[in-house]
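Friendly challenge for the regulars: who can give me the structure tokens for this chain first? No prize, just bragging rights.
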Amino acid sequence: GTDGSPTDNTQNAGGGGGGNGGSGGFGGDAWSSNLSSGGEGGAVFPATIDRLALGGGGGAGVRNNSDGDNQASSAAAGGGIIFIRANSLTGTGTLTANGAGAYNGTLNDAGGGGGSGGTIVILTATGGESGLTLNVNGGNGGNAWQIQPYSLGNRHGPGGGGGGGVIFVSGAPASASVSGGASGLTLKPGVPYGATAGNPGAS
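First reply, four minutes later:
Bragging rights claimed.
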């Protein structure tokens, strides 16, 4: 998104979540102008077995008050890629390529977007996938000034959630999770203030 006051970045809109198998969530609204100017979530990547992508990182929130905190308003990385090609698999195991959650300690500024889930590809000739638990979930968006008691005038844009990732597997696993991440919240009790969750990925 573009800050409503680009010369000094005072409007503090949230960053969008990263995308992969599912699109990322929108960043939260601007501070005093209440405009829906948060960052757009990352788009869906049209993955195929021959065309894969890492999880997209989230976008940073807008900041102007957090000079003492170099993590404030920062976004999060997307998940990686796991690719296994084998004759067969035995036993049980968990493979995880989740997106990271964004920083939650931002004060008086916007939150960043969560990273999207990555990609897992498991291909076997003779089976064994039934023992696998596979996770490519999106990360949560960052909170914005969540220690501050709620009032209309103090709302700052939280980050959007990361979208879910992509799973390709040649046989049915024990479980497969491609959930999108939750949006961040602002103030206490927390409200999303225009920020949205990431969308589920593909499996």
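The two ends are 30 Å apart (CA to CA). The CA atoms of residues 141 and 159 lie 4 Å apart. Your move, everyone else.
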